[in-house]
Amino acid sequence: MTSEDQDLVERRLQMQVYHEWARLARSRPYPDFQDMEDGALEPFRADSAIVQVHEDGEAPHLTFVGANLRRDCGEGARLERRDDVPAATLLAHLTENCEQCVSNRSPIWFEAEFDNRLGEAVKARGILLPVSSDGGTVDMVWCAASCSFEARKEPVTPLPIPPALAQGQVALEGEALAAMQDDPAFRVLVVELGKRLVAAASQEGLVGLALVAMAGGEVVSQLRRGPGFDLPRTAQFMAGLARAETQALAAGPEAERVEQVAVTTARHVGFARPLGEVPGLMVLVALDRGAVNLANARIAMARLARDLDSAGVR
Question: Are the CB atoms for 222 and 182 separated by under 8 Å?
Answer without folding.
Answer: no
